[in-house]
Amino acid sequence: MKAWRKYSPYLLSGEWHIHTSYTDGHNSVDEYCRRAGELGIPLVAFTEHVRRDLNYDFHAFLDAVDRARDEYDLIILSGCEAKVLPGGTLDVDHDLLIQVDYPIFAFHSFPKDFDLYLDALYAVLSNPYVNAWAHPGLFLRKTGFQMPEDELDTIFQKLKDNDVLMELNKKYTLPPAEWINSGKNYPLNFVRGSDCHRVEEIG
Ligand SMILES: [Zn+2]
Ligand SMILES: [Zn+2]
């Protein structure tokens, strides 16, 4: 069972995509938790950027999340946002991947090659640890590639079969509206993830 299942009542009321000052965010775990409490947001997931060779202390980050759990009356998940590599592997250490509650994947810097993208997407969707596809469609928007409709059907089917969430990302207005509409027919599970980099961006 994917970790998110346990928290499914909060998919749309929680904030499931947050970066702290451990990477490129501007606020601390504490500051986000305080703000979530003020706004009545019941769940926060800290999906910190990771790479195979990390340049910050991931355990200190996990400790901060643990301390916050004791301090705030919120559901607080540890997580990571891992970059998909050609072939569909994730740029993250396996030990780290299995330690966090909520790993999500994203296409960041990726070769501008549609077939390579599609192969990697299909492969990563069957990774048993991934919970959600972060800012889905951003790579296509940036590259100008169009997703053929039959491929979209295959993607939706794989999301459904593998119980992977599709992120609703207001910051980028993603996924495209037509994906949301056709995704509802499967039905896919959507999750709110705002890719917060500062407390003002949650809620
Ligand atoms: Zn991202
Ligand atoms: Zn992010």
Automatic annotation (TrEMBL):
Question: What Gene3D superfamilies does the entry give?
Answer: Metal-dependent hydrolases
The record's listing under InterPro entries reads: PHP_dom, PHP_phosphatase, Pol/His_phosphatase_N, Pol/histidinol_Pase-like
Identify the residues that the record assigns to the Polymerase/histidinol phosphatase N-terminal domain, covering every copy. 14-86
Listed GO cellular component terms?
cytosol
Q: Which GO terms describe its molecular function?
A: phosphoric ester hydrolase activity; zinc ion binding
Protein name in UniProt = PHP domain protein
Question: What broad taxonomic lineage does this protein's source fall under?
Answer: Archaea, Methanobacteriati, Methanobacteriota, Stenosarchaea group, Methanomicrobia
